Each structure stands twice: as structure tokens, then as C-alpha cells.
């Protein structure tokens, strides 16, 4: 196996499956974990608990409302009957009363049910807002995931380059020993190996920083041995937008409609039944100056007939809010379509780069093959060979960057589109 075959095999390993026993992470798994483990995800349960309490408060308005009142008063004057020689005892100036009242809502025009429907609509809107915020984290996951992939593939490529140079170093030392090559030829290769070790340190340091950030984001332990699969994402086939923001806008409109319904029902008359029992001095008979028990029962009607068009103006304001939501929806769709067009242009550009990269690499391989032969025959120095090897490595690295960037752009396209 010659050296050119070695570097080709090394590069082909970049997209091979990871070995057994290593933790394997996929892009979809990172999406799933961030949606579940990110602290914001806990708000959904909290919103549901809060909504349940609000519903119970509204339903309690259907139950009898009980109140207890007690008072003791002293007044400067009391009622007197102006009848001469009347034996009627004057009322005490100190008076006492304790009452227990029960009020029962009989009819309020459906305002209670409208309040419940509004709470349900508000819960859907808030839950969707949480979903929208979590969805936006996917772009952050994309950036971290594909940056780690790039570090991972750079490390594999460095390993291939290092193995090739070590093999070449062995050949050069043999040539020096046999007098076929100059004594200092091996020093150039040894220097290159030291540079590769420095590159390993930088790549590994950057990768660990990215791993720590992604680990915190998805709440999953990741280490240097974790292997990240390269997703093979298909080219975009349509531009239909299916983002959660669109549902959020629709839920906002439904919430406004429920608010309109509640406002309209608040104008309806309210019918209440009531009962009051009490004990006091005097009782209901103000002329009986003694402690008595008493009670009253009845119904009462309340209807705000004229409110200076306040209710009407509030509903008109809600209509304007709905129009504003429609405008927000149009703006969102427009901006999203612009983003999709930009991403598609980037995809086309990178695909063209990849075709060019492959052609350049084939030419670089031919040049390196010739340099390899010339080095063996002592025609060129090790420095000249290293130059050609570095050129091939840089072009291979550029191809890897473009392949990773292409998958990142496709992944971002899918996030922007809502897949």
C-alpha cells in the first residue's frame, strides 16, 4: 500500500460509522433532549397548574357566596314616636346586629362560561409561546453540533496526516542510513509531526469547549470519546412553512375572539338570589326594643343599561388587535421566505464548491504521488514533499468544511421551514 492510498483510506474513514462501545449522538437526539431538559420546558406544566387554579376560581362563582357580618353601634339619636302619654319604650342608642348572608348567582348571560373559554384559549397561547421559544433553540443546537462534527473530522484527518508522515519518516531515515538522502531530511518531517501535535491540542481544546456548552444545553453528559453522527439531510423539496409561530398567531386570534365574547356577555343582566338571617337589637321591627332573630329572602336584578359605549369601544380595540396579529403573521411569513431563499442560495454555492474541491484534491493527489517518488530518489527535499502534503491536507480539510457546512445549512433550512 503506497502513501497516497493511505491518505485516501484515512479520509474515507471520516464518514465511517464509529467503533463499538462509544457513545453515539445524533442531531435528532439533541433536538429531543433540548426540548425536554431545557429549563423553559418546565413552564408548560406550571402553566397548566396555574390554569387549573384559575378555572377553579371561576367555577367557584357558580357556588353560593356566604358572608358573615357583625356590628355594634352607638348613635346620638333614635327614632321616637311623637304620641303623648305613649307607653312605647324608646329604642336604645346602643344597637347590635349579626347577620349571615347567602348569595346565589342565577343568571349572568353566560359570562362564566365565556370566562372559562377565555382561560382555555389563554393557556393554549402561553403553551405555544413556550414551544416557540424552545423551537428557536434548535438553531443553537445546530451550530454547536456541526462545530463539534468539524472538530471531530479535523481530528481524524490530522490522524491520517500524522500516520502518513510517520511512515514517510521511517522511509527517510532508512534512506539517510543508506546514504540515499541528505542527513537532515528527517528533521523536516519530525518538525511537521510537532506541528501536528500542536494542532491536535488546539482542535481538542475547541472541541471540549463546544462539548461542554452542548452538554449544558441538552442536559446530557458528553466527553471526548462521544461520537457524533453526520446527518445526511436531503435537499429541500418545498418551501411550505410549518413553524409553530403560525399556530401561535392563530391561538392569539382565538384568545382575542374569546375576549370579545366575554365582553359581549358582560352587558347581559345579572340575576341573583339571596337570603339573610340575623340576630340583633333591634331586629327588623324597629319598634321592638329587644334582641330578635330575623331573616329576609329575595332576588335582585342588576343591569348596567348605559355604560357610555365603554363595552363597545373595548370590543373595537380587540378587533384592531386581531388585525395587528394578521399583520404580524404576514411579516413573519415574508421574513421566513426570505431566509429560505438565502439558505437555498447558500446550499447551491456550497454544492458548487464541493465539486470544485473534489477536482482540486484529485490533482493534488497526482502532484503528491510524483513528489513521493521524487523524494525517494533524492530529487526533492523533505520540505518540498511536506509542502505538497500540506497542500493536499488543506484541500481535504476545505472539502470537509464544505461538507459539514452544507449539512448545517440544510439543517438550518429545515428549522427555518419548520420540519
Automatic annotation (TrEMBL):
Tell whether Nucleus is among the UniProt keywords: no
Record has 4Fe-4S as a keyword: no
A matching Pfam family: OEP
Which key words are in the record?
Cell outer membrane, Membrane, Transmembrane, Transmembrane beta strand, Transport
As for subcellular location, the record says:
Cell outer membrane
Q: Which domain of life is it from?
A: Bacteria
In terms of Gene3D superfamilies, this protein maps to: Outer membrane efflux proteins (OEP)
Q: Which residues cross the membrane?
A: none
Concerning InterPro entries, the annotation shows: OMP_efflux, TolC-like
Annotated family = Belongs to the outer membrane factor (OMF) (TC 1.B.17) family.
Q: Supply the name of the protein.
A: TolC family protein
Upper taxonomic lineage: Bacteria, Pseudomonadati, Bacteroidota, Flavobacteriia, Flavobacteriales
Amino acid at each position: 500500500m503506497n502513501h497516497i492510498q493511505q491518505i485516501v483510506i484515512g479520509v474515507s474513514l471520516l464518514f465511517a460509522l464509529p467503533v463499538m462501545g462509544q457513545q453515539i449522538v445524533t442531531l435528532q437526539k439533541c433536538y429531543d433532549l433540548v426540548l425536554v431538559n431545557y429549563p423553559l420546558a418546565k413552564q408548560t406544566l406550571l402553566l397548566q397548574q396555574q390554569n387549573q387554579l384559575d378555572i377553579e376560581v371561576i367555577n367557584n362563582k357558580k357556588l353560593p357566596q356566604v358572608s358573615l357580618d357583625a356590628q355594634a353601634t352607638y348613635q346620638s339619636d333614635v327614632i321616637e314616636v311623637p304620641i303623648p302619654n305613649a307607653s312605647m319604650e324608646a329604642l336604645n342608642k346602643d344597637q347590635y346586629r349579626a347577620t349571615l348572608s347567602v348569595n346565589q348567582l342565577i343568571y349572568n348571560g353566560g359570562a362564566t362560561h365565556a370566562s372559562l373559554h377565555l382561560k382555555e384559549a389563554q393557556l393554549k397561547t402561553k403553551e405555544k409561546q413556550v414551544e416557540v421559544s424552545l423551537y428557536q433553540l434548535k438553531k443553537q443546537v445546530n451550530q454547536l453540533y456541526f462545530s463539534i462534527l468539524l472538530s471531530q473530522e479535523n481530528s481524524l484527518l490530522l490522524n491520517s496526516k500524522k500516520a502518513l508522515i510517520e511512515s514517510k519518516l521511517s522511509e527517510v531515515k532508512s534512506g539517510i542510513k543508506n546514504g540515499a538522502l541528505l542527513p537532515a531530511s528527517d528533521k523536516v518531517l519530525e518538525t511537521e509531526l510537532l506541528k501536528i501535535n500542536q494542532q491536535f491540542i488546539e482542535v481538542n481544546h475547541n472541541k471540549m469547549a463546544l462539548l461542554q456548552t452542548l452538554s449544558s444545553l441538552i442536559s446530557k453528559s458528553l466527553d471526548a470519546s462521544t461520537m457524533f453522527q453526520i446527518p445526511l439531510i436531503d435537499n429541500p423539496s418545498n418551501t411550505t412553512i410549518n413553524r409553530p409561530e403560525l399556530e401561535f398567531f392563530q391561538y392569539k386570534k382565538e384568545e382575542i375572539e374569546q375576549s370579545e365574547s366575554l365582553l359581549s356577555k358582560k352587558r347581559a343582566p345579572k340575576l341573583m338570589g339571596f337570603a339573610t338571617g340575623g340576630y340583633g337589637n333591634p331586629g327588623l321591627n324597629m319598634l321592638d326594643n329587644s334582641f330578635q332573630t330575623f331573616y329576609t329572602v329575595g332576588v335582585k336584578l342588576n343591569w348596567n343599561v348605559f355604560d357610555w359605549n365603554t363595552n363597545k369601544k373595548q370590543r373595537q380595540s380587540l378587533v384592531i388587535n386581531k388585525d395587528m396579529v394578521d399583520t404580524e403573521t404576514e411579516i413573519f411569513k415574508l421574513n421566513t421566505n426570505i431566509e429560505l431563499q438565502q439558505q437555498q442560495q447558500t446550499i447551491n454555492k456550497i454544492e458548487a464548491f464541493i465539486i470544485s474541491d473534489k477536482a482540486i484534491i484529485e490533482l493534488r493527489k497526482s502532484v503528491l504521488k510524483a513528489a513521493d517518488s521524487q523524494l525517494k530518489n533524492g530529487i526533492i527535499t523533505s520540505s518540498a514533499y511536506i509542502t505538497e502534503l500540506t497542500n493536499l491536507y488543506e484541500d481535504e480539510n476545505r472539502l470537509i468544511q464544505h461538507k459539514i457546512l452544507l449539512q448545517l445549512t440544510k439543517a438550518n433550512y429545515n428549522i427555518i421551514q419548520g420540519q
